[in-house]
Amino acid sequence: MKKKNNTIANAASPHPIISLTDFVDFVAKTGRPKMTLVKQVKQRPEYDPKEDFWRRLRSAIVDYHKSGSTDKTVLGGALDGVTHKPKESAYPAAIKGYQKFLGRKAISWYQPPTKAWTSGDLTIRVNPELGLVINGEHHLVKLYFKADAMTKTKADVIILLMREAIPNLRPGTKFALLDVQRAKLFAHDSPSQDLLPLLQGEAANFATIWASIPDLPARSGLSNAA
Length: 226
Description:
Blueprint: H1 6-11, E1 17-19, H2 20-28, H3 32-42, H4 55-67, H5 85-102, E2 107-110, E3 115-119, E4 122-126, E5 130-134, E6 137-144, H6 152-165, E7 174-179, E8 184-188, H7 196-212
Parallel strand pairs: 1-4, 6-7
Antiparallel strand pairs: 2-5, 3-4, 5-6, 7-8
């Protein structure tokens, strides 16, 4: 499914609709960088799959599990035909990390739900890429590919927002974030809600900053459909 870019997705509404990644990055910043990030998100150009650095590998991982394959080497196919030097450099470590995560686990696929978390005037898309039964336990998994290690603080925020957005699941389902390059899985079936008031405050802060930033001039040929 094609992603909606933030500018177009928000054009029909005064209320921002953003990605989970953008919100977590906002929460992690302090001071003026918060305003800079909101401006970047609001004025981001239309989504182009060719500019989505990890799209090929993300799709390869989803297809691997959907097919029921147990041959981990097929993930290397994400590099087939790639001539983009940064991808040639970055993909092998991520592929190796995901293969290490798979290990000897018994894993099967189920379709993950796509939901949203709304607080005040801000809506955050919550789209876990994977629904996996790992050694008999159901997991909803968000993938993190970046070279910088995922911190527990950020992981806690992501897992809590997944739980708030997608509450009615099979009992015992674990909400999870996988740091792909390090094969490190953060998972919890009942994350603490202690951070929720903080996140609600950050959502209000984001929406306030968003409203203060002028819209870019309308560009011809772009649809306003959400």
